[in-house]
Predict the 3D structure of the following.
Amino acid sequence: MITVGVVFLHLLSSPLWRWALPSHLALHIPDGFLSLPVSLATWVVAVALIAVALKRVESEYKDRTVPLMGVCAAFIFAAQMINFPIPGGTSGHLLGGTLAGALLGPWAGSLVMTVVFIVQSILFQDGGLTVLGANVFNMGLIGTFGGYYLYRAVRFALGRNSLRGTLIGVAIAAWLSVIVAAVATAIQLALSGTVPLAVALTAMLSWHILIGVGEAIISVTTISFIWRSRPDLLYDAPRKAHSLASKSLLPR
């Protein structure tokens, strides 16, 4: 996730919210901030997509993909521990959905992100357990599926085998995935009656627009390094990497 601490969202419903609002708003939703219907709905969607992802990975991916999934999960988890500063005295950190999708594809990438957020919730209390479905859906599934397909569309439009097209696609998808996750969180909070939609959207977007820039920079830097060193590790590997196909960890 891209978060910087615990936020008391109930302050937003007060007329004094403009002055009481902290300079950060977390995507990790704590327990008690979503209504039961909204929480259950996100759980159903999250579990359904994860079940489909498990079947797709089992049937379509090679066994050698598993080590890369583990490495990717460890990298994203570690990278999320590193905060980068943004204006206002706060900071953000990597979400990683688009990055996971670019490396592993949407199905395996979504499983990696799910594992990362489960570990964060259980071991670090980063987000509530009862709303884990919402947090996985907002930060993992939206970022991975949406981020991957947007990245793929932009990359293929500008040139699948060009570094320029790949990096532009990653940058746009990584930034937008953060924005969409922030909007989804705001809508869920509003539907739960926690905070008015206009207030939630204003607060979420004002900071996550900037945090998305950090997400894009980290994702672009990582993909650029992999492109130059092991392009065959990309899920949609460029044609120049075909000579390394025998070493590839991912299916074509």
